[in-house]
Design goal:
Length: 234
């Protein structure tokens, strides 16, 4: 109602018993994919919530369409919430179980998109001196990394760790200490979830001891091999 969309029923009992996936498909058919109508990310999040409400009746094609549209519109906040909803609802577990590589790739690409948008925003703000909240950006970065290290989201964790370590070094040089610390801590979170010793070594060798010294090696599989590979970097 807040978005000016019609309700299928005025009776609350009927609303609670309706088929949410069917209603989501109807809304998408009549309103989806047309950004010129002024429909915002809230609309697509509503559709996603309707579509994944019941894990036994998830419409994976609609799921893919919603994510594709949010990516196309570059709505980072809505896209981040969509990724979080999908993970928390166990929808991604179903996608992985059915081996829907295209959908997993789309969600992974969404995480990449969000990260790039946030990093670009941070870089613009630091270069132009605009007023902005460092803490808000770091809070968003923390949420992004929670998705990067989540199963079954498929992203290049080594690439993210290396990128965040490089940004930590850059902002340390530029005297943005809070940003530097934030990126370093998030890189350490990613490193702590790399269970492949070779991947861990590839990522940690591109950083420095200070950047990765707080990694909890006990969370790693084959941790002894990982630690030895890490120590060989120095």
């Amino acid at each position: 109602e807040a978005m000016g969309l019609p309700l299928p029923h005025s009776d609350l009992i009927q609303l609670s018993a309706m088929n949410y996936v069917s209603f989501a498909r109807t809304l998408w058919r009549h309103h989806g994919g047309v950004s010129s109508r002024g429909l915002s990310g809230r609309f697509y999040l509503l559709l996603l919530n309707l579509g994944i409400n019941n894990p036994n009746t998830i419409d994976l094609e609609l799921f893919l369409s919603i994510f594709s549209e949010l990516k196309r519109l570059e709505l980072p906040r809505s896209l981040l919430l969509a990724c979080e909803y999908a993970f928390q609802s166990k929808a991604l577990e179903l996608v992985a179980l059915e081996n829907r590589a295209v959908i997993l790739s789309c969600v992974g690409d969404s995480v990449n998109t969000i990260s790039n948008i946030v990093i670009n925003e941070i870089q613009t703000n630091t270069e132009t001196g605009l007023e902005w909240s460092t803490q808000d950006c770091l809070s968003t970065l923390h949420r992004i990394v929670s998705l990067i290290i989540a199963d079954p989201i498929q992203v290049d964790q080594v690439s993210f760790a290396n990128k965040y370590l490089a940004l930590a070094t850059r902002y340390e040089i530029q005297n943005h200490r809070k940003l530097s610390q934030g990126f370093r801590e998030e890189a350490a979170r990613i490193l702590a979830h790399l269970t492949d010793p070779q991947k861990f070594s590839a990522a940690s060798c591109n950083g420095n001891k200070e950047a990765v010294q707080n990694v909890e090696y006990t969370t790693l599989k084959n941790s002894n091999d990982a630690v030895q590979a890490f120590e060989r970097c120095f």
